[in-house]
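Tokens for chain A. Residues wanted.
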């Protein structure tokens, strides 16, 4: 199985200062749905791992989260692709759980669900938390400049002594990252 793990907010959909709390607010980044479909058609199993602190904060309820994920899945299916699973952390940062990225609990859950090691699996994200979770499991982190990706890239550049971040591939968006992954994996 060729597995890919994607972050959601800032990688697949627009994200900003305000949390995405309704299916109406959820809007895909140009080309992201098509990129997911392209990866699926190339034989990849796509799984999403996303922090959703709005659940803990009461800004988002489970029904609305499911509506957002149904909208995402429908768009991907209409483009000829499929998302095999969506894993989410429902906790806030103060909960100190093991499933909230940068910890690797979501990746652990993906490994258990698919009975596969995530070592060497591409993990596409826009935040340092995504990169840290990937690195802790031996995954191959990929950074996109959408969402908070530019800020993350600037933070990495400002800390050149952290060698773990220095050779991570960086792409404009999920479409560009998908092309790279199809060629490399």
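Reply:
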């Amino acid at each position: 199985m060729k597995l890919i793990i994607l972050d959601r907010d800032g990688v697949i959909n627009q994200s900003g200062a305000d949390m995405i709390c309704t299916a109406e607010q959820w809007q895909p980044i140009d080309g992201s749905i098509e990129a997911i479909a392209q990866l699926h058609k190339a034989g990849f199993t796509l799984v999403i791992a996303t922090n959703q602190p709005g659940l803990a904060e009461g800004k988002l309820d489970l029904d609305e989260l499911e509506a957002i994920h149904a909208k995402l899945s429908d768009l991907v299916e209409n483009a000829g692709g499929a998302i095999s699973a969506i894993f989410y952390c429902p906790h806030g940062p103060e909960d100190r759980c093991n499933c909230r990225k940068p910890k690797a609990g979501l990746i652990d859950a993906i490994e258990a669900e698919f009975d596969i090691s995530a070592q060497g699996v591409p993990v596409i994200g826009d935040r340092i938390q995504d990169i840290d979770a990937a690195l802790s499991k031996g995954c191959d982190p990929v950074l996109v400049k959408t969402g908070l990706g530019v800020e993350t890239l600037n933070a990495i550049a400002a800390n050149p002594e952290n060698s773990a971040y220095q050779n991570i591939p960086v792409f404009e968006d999920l479409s560009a990252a998908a092309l790279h992954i199809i060629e490399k994996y």
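The longest strand covers residues 44-51. Helices lie at 32-41, 54-57, 62-78, 105-114, 128-136, 149-158, 174-184.
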